[in-house]
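Let us walk through a complete example step by step. Step one is to write down the protein sequence. Step two is to encode the small molecule, adenosine-5'-triphosphate, as a SMILES string so that its atoms and bonds are unambiguous. Step three, shown after the inputs, is the structure prediction itself.
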Amino acid sequence: MTSTNDFAGTLQGRVGAASGLWAISPRDILRLLRAAFLGAAAELAALGLMATAAWLLLRAAERPPLAALTLAIVAVRTLALLRGGLRYAERLAGHEVVLRWLGALRTRVYQALAPGSRFSGGDLVTRVVSGVDALQDAVLRCLLPAGVAFLVGLVSVGVTATASLAAAGVLAAGLVTAGVLLPWLVVRVTGEAARAEAPQRAELAERAVELVTGHRELVAAGALEEHRGRATAVVGRLARSERLASAKTSLAGAAGVLVQLGTTVGVALLAGASVPWTAALTLAALTCFEVVLPLIGAARRVPEIRASAARVRAVLNRPVPEKGSRIARDGHFRLERASRKYPGRAPALQDVDLDLPPGKRVGILGPSGAGKTTLLRLLLGLETPTSGRVTLDGHPVTEYADLPSVISGAEADAHVFHTTVRENLLLAKPDATDGELREACETAGFDLDLDRDTGPDGAALSGGQRQRLVLARAVLAAPPVLVLDEPVEGLDPAHGDAVLERVLAKAKGTVLLVTHRPEHVAGFDEVLTLEDGRALPASAAGRRPGRP
Ligand SMILES: Nc1ncnc2c1ncn2[C@@H]1O[C@H](COP(=O)(O)OP(=O)(O)OP(=O)(O)O)[C@@H](O)[C@H]1O
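Step three: the predicted structure of the complex.
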């Protein structure tokens, strides 16, 4: 076993170097081969045990001198012990490789998901947890058993060939039918069924989400039963399709058992050796199928594994925006004819210029959907412009490694961690004293206990409390460029105005405030008014101040 540090080092190296889904180090490939050989040895020990026991019984019936049986008696005991020991060693070796590989794969999936993920929460959980977990079956339930079955089959056919080529031929044909042909058929049948069921599964997921999230509305409209009936109908269709596919794959399982019986009888008839030796070969052939038949069951998982692999690969292969290593100097942001367009929609932002040197205070006004948040997301490096430039100290913002430490604040979708108020605040300033935390809370008008549990994403707080907690965190972080996206929108106006006044009084650097209320940005160095993604000329903006 390697030490934890060794393991972390190997993992890091592999994470950095590997690009494909199945990326695995040469050392782990050797470990996998070792697991396959150990597995084959364990199965051959079981097979040898059966064959030797059969030989022993029949030879003993001939009443030979005891000395003629001694070797077989010792072999039976040795093989029985070996079988258990080798199986344990194979499990250990196989699982060690798979757990290493899965650990590295999970790290890579997390790394690929981290920057500005386009995947939603539920989708993300599916990809990371079930998707990656399903892949372990590819190795443990498919690849490794197939390797073991191949080795065991090869040895069995070889040993049978020493007695009779015809019997060896029958055994080989039986093993190929049960171990290759039938699993291939099962993969085809389950694959076709999965493809046919995919739209129904999607529909069921959609209907289930609608039933749960829209439950109250459906009850109020008296439409619950109708919607439940539609979901139940989809469940019925899916169940029928699954039953049909299951019947077909069960037939393949039964066919496997028939092939096993036929092959065993064939070997017994064609072996042409002494009775004990024929019995040994026959029982060996019968036992050999115990390794091969599970491949038919494992084949049912192949389409699901393929789908999981495709989902995980989509995460790993998506282009990750290059994060540069540049370190910010002055903190001078600039938008130069910046535009952002989403496919199939009018531009969210079009040809907008903005100069934001250190210390400047800029207000952004505009009706809903005007592009205010889009402008902030460009500056925060969360979106890239479809044309134009967004720069910090003359270089594209995406080239900076430390952008969030230069520009941050109270963003509309800021996350509240499921912990205490104190821990949420300490994220912004880890060495802050309780006094400093309370002062920041006071500035933001947030008066809850520091030990208060916040719930998942702040669900245990009211909307206003959540908003003020995010604001207190922004005050504590005190970044060079403070971004405030409608920071007091949900608060009652008088209280909100007072909070905003205190927050602005504390801010020492650049401030970018998005608001619907022009009085919030009175006295700012510049006010940019957006409408339909475009900046209005100053005069026009003056005529329609803060039209909501
Ligand atoms: N991810 C997206 N995909 C497609 N369209 C988007 C996306 N994000 C924003 N938009 C569209 O871009 C336009 C500008 O959105 P934005 O969020 O910047 O407006 P806003 O001025 O901040 O509005 P509000 O005051 O309501 O928050 C809107 O029409 C919106 O529907």
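Step four is interpretation. Confidence is low (pLDDT under 50) at residues 1-18, 541-548.
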